Amino acid sequence: MIQAVKTRFDPSQIICDEIINHHLAKAAADATARAKDAVAKALELKGLDSEEVAALLLCEDRDIQQEIFAAANRIKESIYGKRLVLFAPLYISNVCRNECLYCAFRADNKNIRRKTLSQREIASEVRSLTSAGQKRILLVASEGMFENWFDYILKSIETIYSVKEGRGEIRRLNVNIAPLTIDQFKRLKAAGIGTYQLFQESYHRPTYRRVHPKGPKSDYDNRIGAMDRAFQAGVDDVGLGVLFGLYDYRYEVLALLEHIAHLERRFGVGCHTISVPRIEPAADCDLAGNPPHPVSDEDFKKLVAILRLAVPYTGMIMSTRESPEMRAQTFALGVSQISAGSRTNPGGYGLRDLDAAAQFQLGDHRSLDEVIRDAASLGYVPSFCTACYRLGRTGGDFMDLAKPGLIKQFCLPNALLTFKEYLEDYAGPQTRRLGLELIQNSLGDIPTAARCVETSARLEKIEAGERDLYF
Ligand code: SAM
Ligand code: SF4
Description:
The protein is of the alpha/beta class and 471 residues long.
């Protein structure tokens, strides 16, 4: 349950430049010693404060960097085990009134083909996704030019949930759409969404202003205040993110953690997920091809690991912007959710002939089955679980379960059950062979004998044709 609103809200107060710069300056003096202590503290799974995170971000010592990676791996294993939740983004429109300089959909880009999918086209896209085995969709939309844009979003959610074909259905729909009013958030919640995602892109005001010169998105405070309005409307699963490459990643990581701390103070719970997109080249966007603060692969892995240490119970999402190799490396550093088989152009799944423009270049072009096979061969258990959201275990209730270590009691069995469904209904022969072996080997990781026995019984029921079983 969301706790009572405790403080008066002024969105311009959420991020304070002076405080972030003070933490960075203070940590610079003896970052190595402080970082060593921070790694030790993080292993207690209680998270880190901003000064400790600043020390980790500034520490250049190679040995300590390896310790950060090892600690992130231990935390990930102990809280999440080998589970990886899978989803696919569904882009429904690329018609936009904003001018984000990094995005191919920006309003002034005259060289791309625009498309807003009709409800019939959305249903067709959903059928393509469910016939590959997807159960979780992230609905993504540009900020439409038309007056009834939000009604269109709501109608699209209804369409997506209504598609049922054979065993194919979407059981959880998350959304990544422009900031809403409290009243709109209430309607979004009533439509049955899982997580509401919105990335601040950059928390650094001058950078934000520069890269968002036009349109409603140029209002920094309206964007950063969106999660407060979501909570006020009862949407308690929210996802934050930064578009890495726009400004110094050290500043952005600290600011992101300040944003989470603000939500914790005000609503008693932070965010459900963090996304860590890095800027990819995009059609007719010079800034995307040449980001002002590029984040190297080493720094990217480091920031993922540091986030794992800082907020151990918050899910972390890795999209197909990254290459298969980078994705696999970050699984070990704390990533808990991944997209797979993605397209970022409206109509990209089934309606290929539409040829509408994609948002940015993908780094991972594998199919869902290939991603699953590769993840399973590394020992990761792919999961299509949607149980918590359907049973109302969201927001603070989810955190209450996660913190005493109960994730493994629920999430691993549910991962195995949904993975088994996938193997029965959609997998290629090689994936199936690998997957069945992995399920057998993973049963022993379920923490109690009773839950293990019950999971085995449910796996048999799935083999016999039952579906949608969960704890
Ligand atoms: N239009 C809405 C908005 O901007 O909030 C929501 C969806 S937008 C299509 C999803 C996210 O894509 C943006 O928040 C941004 O972080 C990311 N994005 C845009 N251009 C990108 C690029 N060139 N490379 C990587 N990610 C990008
Ligand atoms: Fe539009 Fe979102 Fe792209 Fe900005 S990032 S141009 S708001 S779709």
